[in-house]
Amino acid sequence: MSEDYKKMWEELDIDLERHDQLLGGLSQLYTNVYLLQKNRPKGMEYYDYVISEVHGLRIKELCDFRKKGNKVVAYFCLYVPEELVLASGAVLVGLCGGSNFADQDAEAVLPRNICPLIKASYGFKVARVCPYFQAADLLVGETTCDGKKKMFELLGELVPLHTVEVPQKPETEQARKLFFEELNTLKSKLEELTGSKITSEGLKKSIETVNAKRAILERLVNTRKASPPPISGKDSLLVFQIAFYDDPQRFTQKTTELVEELEERIRKGEGVVDAEAPRIMISGCPMAIPNWKLHNIVENSGAVIVVEESCVGTRYISMGQIDNSSDSVDGLIKSIADAYLNIHCSCFTPNDGRIKDNIQLAKDFKVDGVIHYSLQTCHGYNIEAKKVESALKEQGIPMLTIETDYSGEDTGQLTTRIEAFLEMLKK
Ligand code: BJ8
Predict the structure, then answer these.
(1) Ligand 1: residue whose CA is nearest its atom 14
(2) DSSP letters along 21-69, please?
(3) Residue 310: is its pLDDT beyond 90?
(4) What H or E segment, with its residue span, contains residue 309?
(5) Closest CA to 308 of 425, 395, 398, 221
(6) How far does residue 374's CA lie from ligand 1's centre (Å)?
(7) At what angle do helices 200-223 and 329-340 cross, to 10 degrees?
(8) Which of 100, 421, 425, 427 is within CB 3.0–4.6 Å of 406 for a Cys-Cys bond?
């Protein structure tokens, strides 16, 4: 990394020594997991570059943006609409942590036996190793699972934080009304932060920008219906992970180039694996960078992941194309609120939509089996796994349930279980 970046990190109050360790580990992991893959699409070079500059160029862009008086907003969950943030003139970046690097820092305050994603989200702030955290002018949390909700209270003691209330029973009229009002409150908070008014013209434009991003991601998802699929599960996961913090317009343009290449591969019958490789769906908790553990094990075991029912997969685009035909700010926020309640997170009750999504996706992507993925102590997804399993079983689709964390300690055990599951599918 250049001296310029060092100066930038110092200005962001990064702990340089630990940050070096973090980046060193990431680079090694990325080489092993990603760069050794065979037959990758050329379009993945852009995402390789983004990762090589993950704490460099994008952070510089954010710092330059802030120097002009603009604001950076950071978030942890899909229920915070990017459309509203962009319409306020700010940019939105994702903060969820996917590594156990700062667990010890988090455990000085948080209990040891909580979800690794919550621990990482808090630990990275305390350890001062994440420049996205350091560059954020406002964090937006949300009331989804209890662990996150309570962690946000502690995070709010360290940084400016606003929490959006997400209703838990989305089917009711009261829930829709509450979420609409919550997004209106967020709008006021963003206006206060940026000093600019959110207008209907601005909102229409930002809806268009984010719709375009979702449309190209949907096209990417659809390419994986092909047999053989033109892209690995690992690579597709990476594209979704990067969608959380890249510039949305550039991301859409680069992903369009990638998708065009993938569609061409399909026309030529080219794939990343043999057509006989077992087709697997992953369903469950999100995977933040650099959590590539499960995908790596599954694909190194000879299968291919063809779809993720996850917030780094189909849930990220489950709002669909948001209607921006209204000429009033209220009308547009109502469209956004209604669309975002189509994200079927396990914090909802009941959450039948997610069960239906699992069945539909398993059929559409012709999967041979499903691996349900829960992070340790994530009660919502852990408990819901039973319902998902029964529903899939009725359709004759086998499911393996996995609960894990960010450590590598269970890699051997997981590999054995996954290989046995794949063997069973082949039979
Ligand atoms: S919309 S999945 S991003 S809440 S894994 S912290 S649920 S204990 S991340 Fe999520 Fe929004 Fe839902 Fe998606 Fe809690 Fe579970 Fe941990 Fe989780």
Answers:
(1) 145
(2) HHHHHHHHHHIIIIIT-SS--TTHHHHHHHHHTTTTHHHHHHHHHHHTT
(3) yes
(4) strand 304-309
(5) 221
(6) 10
(7) 30
(8) 100
Q: Which residue has the tokens 């207008």?
A: 199
For atom 15 of ligand 1, the residue with the nearest CA is: 378
Distance from Cα 11 to the centre of ligand 1, integer Å: 32
Q: Which residues contact 131 (CB under 8 A, 6 or more apart)?
A: 8, 9, 12, 14, 55, 59
3-state class (DSSP) for residue 391: helix
Count of Cβ atoms closer than 10 Å to residue 90 Cβ: 21
Distance 388 CA to ligand 1 centre (A): 17
Rg, C-alpha atoms of the chain: 21
Cα 10 to averaged position of ligand 1 atoms, centre (Å): 32
Q: Where are the alpha helices (DSSP H) in 71-115?
A: 82-87, 103-107
Which domains, from first to last, does the chain contain?
Answer: 2-187 (3.40.50.11890), 206-319+346-426 (3.40.50.11900)
Tokens of 50: 């983004």
- The C-alpha atoms of residue 42 and residue 45 are separated, in whole angstroms, by 6
Decide if 252 contacts 216 (C-beta within 8 A).
yes
pLDDT (tens digit per residue) in 201-215: 999 999 999 999 999
Take atom 11 of ligand 1 and give the residue whose Cα is closest. Answer: 77
- Would you give the distance in Å from CA 265 to the centre of its chain? 26
| Burial status of residue 123 (CB atoms within 10 A of its CB: 0-12, 13-18, 19 or more) | buried
**Cβ of 371: how many Cβ atoms within 10 Å?**
26
What is the length of the chain?
427
- Which strand ranges, in their side-by-side order, compose the sheet holding 72-75? 91-94, 72-75, 138-142, 161-164
How far apart are the C-alpha atoms of 301 and 54, rounded to whole Å? 29
Tokens of 87: 């319409």
Percentage with pLDDT > 70 across the chain: 99
| Angle between the N-to-C axes of helices 233-243 and 44-52, in degrees from 0 to 180, rounded to the nearest 10 | 60
- Count the Cβ atoms, other than its own, within 10 Å of residue 325: 9
Q: Which two tokens stand for residue 302?
A: 């000879």
pLDDT in tens, 37-63: 999 999 999 999 999 999 999 999 999
Q: State percent of the chain over pLDDT 90.
A: 98
Torsion angles phi and psi, residue 160, rounded to 5? -65, 130
